[in-house]
Amino acid sequence: MSEDEKTPAREVIADYAQAHFRYFRTADGTVYAQKNGHPVARPIRSQGTSGSHRQELMVGLFKDGVGVFNGTALKEALDLIEALAMTEDTQPVHIRVAPGFDGATWLDLGRDDGQSVRIHPTGWDIRVPDPREVCWRRTQLTGELPLPAKDTDGKGIDLLLRLCNFAGAETECLAIAWLIGCLGPSVPVPAPFLTGPQGAGKSTGGRMLVRIIEGMSGDLRRAPKDEENLLAAVAAGWVTALDNLSHMSPDLSDAMCCIVTGAENVKRALFTDGDVFRVGYRRPLLLTGIDVGVIRPDLAERLLPLRLERPKIRRTEAELWAEYAEILPTVLGSLLDLTVKVRAVDAETPTDLRMADFAHLCAQLDAATGLRSLDAYRASLDDLNDDVIEGDLLAQTVLKHAESLAAGTEQRMTSTEWLHLLSGLYSGDELRPLPRGWPTTGKVLSDRLKRLQPTLAARGVLIDSGRTSEGRYLEMTRAAAATPHEHKPMF
After folding, report:
1. CB–CB of 398/457 below 8 Å?
2. Which end of the chain is more exposed for a tag (fewer CB within 10 A), N or C?
3. Do 328 and 409 share a structural domain?
4. Are both 444 and 337 inside the same structural domain?
């Protein structure tokens, strides 16, 4: 055969690739390759060290005796495949958990053979998902989970709680509810904040919770210094765990709010003038620390305090993690059993809580097990409101003024008039100086009060704003049904 009659290398590669892989695009335009019959998909432009499509294509060509090709031929073939894939239907890719058909959800075990867990209200089983139903995306943060044990009779949950140092049944049931929420791709869950005295095992407890979902390679990380690095870590895994927080800047607090409830980030595509790419994210988040200082009200609504206490008996790290690795299949199996049981239960959704999906999950857990996780969740939010108020002098001053109002009384003034009144109330007869960070204009005061609205409402003080022919106003109302704040026993 003459040189002119030979099939060009790029065509040989393209024909082989289309015969052995399925190519599709996601809604953001990224083209993925999926080996026939296998649920794991890789972006064709990826050069990642965890295995790129270019590498698996080269290996396949070599092992099947097709040949070894230079980089130019591979690039030309992949350029053609990418262009053809842009005409295909879109399909999403998922990390660790994914929605499936018929009300099912999937959990990626991170195995090379693609075996995953299908969770349905009627039960769970282990199988390789149909690539048209679920496409897994994996990164270096995707660890391997053991095959979950069947017929555990719930003992895995008891084994886990025995290793953790949770302070009381109310904390334990909230931790269980959070783990169940992590297995739901469409359920925003509040971020557990593991707190307790020094030596309470907060980091160890955080690792144990994370590794149930992420495998033994899952770990805690230091909080990144900027939002961009934080979002990069979030996008590469399912559960993001930040360790030993001692301070939370406003930017970090806002970023965490977005991670918990979901947001989208738009960036300029590299090597272009006007193209952009979209990154959407909503991930479970876990935090540990003794004290992070002042908590902003919007983040407080998205936190789940889990209190730990110092263990009475200390064990070596090697002993502890050896036992944990041994019981992990049983723990995962028990968690899946409980998840199935919870999802099969109907429960009323509480309408007064910000994280309504998680509150509904707590109600389902209570109906399925007899626990009181919803009461525990309400009590935890009440404690967080206390923390917000104790760290905010403006909130304390507003509540002090509200005490002088009769129940049901409305008071309306401009924001500037409110600033003068509250500043004078804080300064008092001693004319003490206003603290750092105190509002300096009526506009700043109005913005601060809007942020504090949920916290103040939980204490029976309602803040509203509006406009009349005379201008804008702020209105404070002491609710008629307000009751003294108190902590009720949980169990």
Report:
1. no
2. N
3. no
4. no
In angstroms, the CA 395 to CA 32 distance is 51
Number of domains in the chain: 3
Is residue 295 very low, low, confident or very high in pLDDT (cuts 50, 70, 90)?
confident
Identify whether residues 417 and 352 lie together within a single domain.
no
Q: φ and ψ at 58, to 5 degrees?
A: -65, -40
> How sure is the predictor about 270, in pLDDT bands with cuts at 50, 70 and 90?
very low
C-beta separation of 465 from 474 below 8 A: yes
pTM for this model (two decimals): 0.86
- Residue 312's domain spans which residues? 155-388
What CATH number is attached to the domain comprising 255? 3.40.50.300
- Specify whether the backbone of 408 is left (phi greater than 0), alpha (psi in -120 to 50) or beta: left
Nearest to 187 by CA among 104, 242, 260, 239: 260
Could you give the angle at which helices 393-402 and 415-427 cross, rounded to 10 degrees?
Answer: 90
Residues 200 and 81 occupy one common structural domain: no
pLDDT of 472 over the 90 cut: no
Closest residue by Cα to residue 47 from 139, 135, 142: 139
SS3 for 447?
helix
Q: In this structure, are residues 301 and 454 in contact, taking their beta carbons and an 8 Å threshold?
A: yes
| Residues 276 and 425 grouped into a single domain | no
Do 116 and 107 touch, CB atoms closer than 8 A? yes
Check whether residue 188 and residue 279 sit in a common domain: yes
Helix axes 373-390, 442-457, angle to 10 degrees: 150
Q: Evaluate whether 361 touches 180 at the Cβ level (below 8 Å).
A: yes
Q: What's the distance, CA 235 to chain centroid?
A: 11
Question: What does the alpha-carbon distance between residue 127 and residue 116 come to, in Å, rounded to a whole number?
Answer: 6
Query: CB neighbours of 181 closer than 8 A, spacing ≥ 6?
Result: 187, 189, 284, 357, 358, 361
Query: What is the Cα 61 distance to its own chain's centre?
Result: 40
pLDDT of residue 232: 79
Domain endpoint, select from 364, 388, 412: 388
95 half-sphere exposure, CB direction, 13 A CA radius: 20
Nearest residue to 302 (alpha-carbon basis) of 377, 234, 396: 377
Residues 306 and 375 in one domain: yes
DSSP letter (8 states) at residue 294: P
Instruction: Say if CB 17 and CB 75 are below 8 A apart.
Output: no
Are both 383 and 396 inside the same structural domain?
no
Identity of residue 48: G
In degrees and rounded to multiples of 5, residue 175 shows phi and psi of -65, -40
User: Residue 60 belongs to what H/E stretch?
Assistant: helix 53-63
